[in-house]
């Protein structure tokens, strides 16, 4: 774990776990309640939970076009409505299974249209109920000696759309699942080239082959309330990725999805043990509502909880670890880039003479060198008209960095053009990618910007490299989060004028 504070919390949880025989004693319950409060408060401070919720809520109900398309292919593959004998389920009529899935889809879409969910949980219906029927259909393919080529193509297309990072995460989960040998009859050993992902194209096809092979244990794994949050996603979930990847909203990262799942897992034990409401838990996490988290929950029936205390300790530990990874996703890359800015600005009197005449390519190389020295692997791009200057992958997310050098007084329109260019680059990447615009400002006009992600995807980092002392600067530009449909507002400080840059479809 990266955060010493999180490490300390896990150690205290482990200490409590060694005294479970005293779980009914008042000192144990009060210690666990205090530790729970501390953990939720620390997670709320370390992770941008509201941003995680916004990403989840934007993608809480993907359109089901990819799933419907796969069903159409299955209808063509199973031309006759005749039962197929299966060892595990007797005789199965593929068309009745397909019809059952279509009924689930219609219920979900009707609930979305009326905004009346009742007991329906979209992601759970897809991951469990629809997945269960899809596994039966995959078994039907195998019983007839057929290879579901068209379905594999659908999975491959999903992986192609969501990008390399999610593909890597899925393969790591598959590798771990294969190593566990939990009743899975896929190959026991994994070729080294797939583990290292040296051949991404082959990896995508291997994943598609694995996901479209019948595996009855997958539904059991996904339904297990204590299963790892990094479990291999099922066929149904992967088919919805096509629609999410084409959505205007960014996909939640793997860490954010795991964090949401683990947040949901602790809600019932907290309610059972300490009478905590969802609103109280949200307050400790510094978020107004956990509605987005509730939409991705896996239901845990009350009579299915044999030991709420032991369950809470187990799940709270898992929650802290995923929060640590989610916090590190932002902290690592942003921490060092901000340090880079501070170092340059602090040494302006010593370096200004050497930097003033330098071209953008010099600053790109210097940025790459700085990141390499801190164990990142930046990729510098020096050609093409549709490529960012630097790409860094950290925590399963691509960070596209655009470098701009300004030597004339910047205008709101110029800043807007630079940001539009970054938005264009981001639109060509997987939906989880984020963009950072670094401005090397050599003019007497200071530029300041919010340190928050804009729309959860864009960050502006101005580095002011002018030697004019603050007392002699007549104006500054402040870049703030925009209102309504504007991505940013640019405010000119030092006069009465306020400029707002307008950026639609952001």
Present the secondary structure layout.
Elements lengths: L3 H14 L8 H21 L2 H10 L6 H13 L6 E3 L3 E3 L1 H21 L7 H22 L5 H14 L1 H17 L11 H5 L3 H12 L5 H7 L11 H11 L8 H21 L3 H7 L6 H4 L13 H39 L1 H8 L4 H13 L6 E2 L9 E5 L2 E10 L5 H16 L6 E8 L4 E4 L8 E7 L11 E6 L6 E6 L4 E2 L7
Parallel strand pairs: 5-6, 6-8, 7-9
Antiparallel strand pairs: 1-2, 3-4, 4-5, 9-10, 10-11
Helix pairs in contact: 1-2, 1-16, 2-16, 4-5, 4-12, 5-6, 7-10, 7-12, 8-10, 13-16
How would you sum up this structure in a few lines?
It contains 19 helices and eleven strands. It is of the alpha/beta class.
- What low-confidence regions span 5 or more consecutive residues with pLDDT below 50? 182-191, 225-229, 296-306, 496-506
User: What is the number of helical segments per DSSP (H or I, 4+ residues)?
Assistant: 19
Which value, in Å, is the CA radius of gyration?
26 Å
Q: Into which percentage range does the β-strand content fall?
A: 5-15%
Biggest sheet, spatial arrangement of strands = 3-4-5-6-8
Query: Terminal Cα separation, in Å?
Result: 35 Å
Structural class: alpha/beta
Classify the helix fraction into a percent range: 40-55%
Query: How many strand elements?
Result: 11
Biggest sheet, in brief?
5 strands, mixed
Task: Tell me about this structure.
- The protein has 506 residues and is of the alpha/beta class.
- The chain is 54% helix and 11% strand.
- It contains 19 helices and eleven strands.
- It has helices at residues 4-17, 26-46, 49-58, 65-77, 94-114, 122-143, 149-162, 164-180, 192-196, 200-211, 217-223, 235-245, 254-274, 278-284, 291-294, 308-346, 348-355, 360-372, 412-427, and strands spanning 84-86, 90-92, 379-380, 390-394, 397-406, 434-441, 446-449, 458-464, 476-481, 488-493, 498-499.
- A five-stranded mixed beta sheet has the order 3-4-5-6-8, sandwiched between helices. A four-stranded mixed beta sheet has the order 7-9-10-11, with no helix packed on it.
- Helix 1 (4-17) runs antiparallel to helix 2 (26-46), helix 5 runs antiparallel to helix 6 and helix 7 packs across helix 12 (235-245).
- The two termini are 35 Å apart.
- The model is unreliable at 182-191, 225-229, 296-306 and 496-506 (pLDDT under 50).
């Amino acid at each position: 774990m990266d955060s010493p504070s999180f490490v300390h919390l896990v150690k205290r949880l482990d200490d409590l776990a060694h005294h479970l025989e005293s779980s009914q004693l008042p000192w144990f319950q009060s210690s666990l309640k205090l530790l729970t409060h501390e953990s939720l408060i620390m997670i709320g401070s370390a992770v941008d939970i509201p941003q995680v919720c916004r990403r989840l809520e934007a993608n809480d109900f993907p359109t089901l076009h990819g799933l419907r398309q796969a069903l159409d292919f299955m209808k063509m593959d199973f031309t006759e409505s005749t039962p197929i004998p299966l060892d595990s389920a007797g005789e199965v009529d593929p068309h009745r299974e397909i019809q059952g899935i279509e009924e689930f889809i219609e219920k979900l879409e009707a609930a979305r249209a009326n905004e009346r969910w009742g007991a329906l949980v979209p992601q759970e219906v897809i991951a469990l109920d629809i997945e269960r029927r899809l596994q039966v259909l995959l078994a039907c393919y195998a019983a007839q000696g057929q290879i579901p080529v068209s379905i594999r193509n659908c999975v491959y297309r999903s992986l192609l759309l969501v990008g390399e990072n999610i593909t890597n995460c899925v393969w790591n989960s598959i590798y771990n699942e294969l190593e566990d040998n939990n009743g899975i009859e896929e190959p026991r050993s994994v070729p080294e080239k797939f583990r290292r992902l040296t051949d991404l194209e082959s990896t995508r096809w291997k994943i598609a082959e694995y996901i479209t092979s019948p595996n009855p244990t997958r539904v059991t794994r996904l339904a297990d309330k204590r299963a790892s949050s990094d479990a291999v996603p099922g066929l149904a979930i992967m088919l919805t990725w096509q629609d999410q990847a084409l959505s205007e909203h960014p996909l939640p990262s793997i860490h954010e999805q795991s964090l949401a799942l683990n947040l949901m897992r602790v809600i019932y034990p907290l309610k059972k043990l300490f009478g905590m409401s969802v609103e109280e838990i949200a307050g400790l996490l510094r978020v107004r509502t956990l509605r987005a988290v509730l939409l991705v929950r896996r239901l845990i029936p009350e009579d299915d909880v044999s030991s709420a205390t032991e369950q809470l300790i187990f799940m709270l530990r898992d929650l802290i670890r995923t929060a640590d990874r989610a916090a590190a996703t932002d902290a690592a890359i942003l921490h060092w880039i901000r340090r880079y800015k501070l170092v340059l600005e602090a040494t302006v009197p010593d370096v200004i003479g050497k930097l003033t005449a330098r071209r953008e390519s010099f600053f790109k190389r210097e940025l790459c060198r700085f990141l390499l020295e801190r164990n990142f692997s930046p990729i510098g791009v020096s050609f093409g008209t549709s490529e960012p200057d630097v790409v860094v992958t950290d925590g399963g997310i691509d960070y596209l960095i655009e470098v701009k050098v300004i030597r004339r007084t910047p205008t709101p329109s110029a800043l807007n053009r630079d940001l539009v260019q970054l938005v264009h680059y981001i639109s060509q990447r997987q939906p989880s990618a984020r963009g950072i615009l670094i401005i090397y400002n050599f003019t007497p006009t200071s530029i300041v910007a919010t340190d928050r992600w804009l729309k959860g995807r864009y960050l502006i980092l101005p580095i002011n490299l002018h030697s004019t002392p603050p007392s002699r600067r007549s104006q500054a530009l402040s870049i703030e989060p925009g209102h309504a449909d504007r991505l940013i507002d640019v405010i000119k400080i030092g006069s009465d004028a306020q400029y707002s840059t307008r950026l639609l479809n952001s």
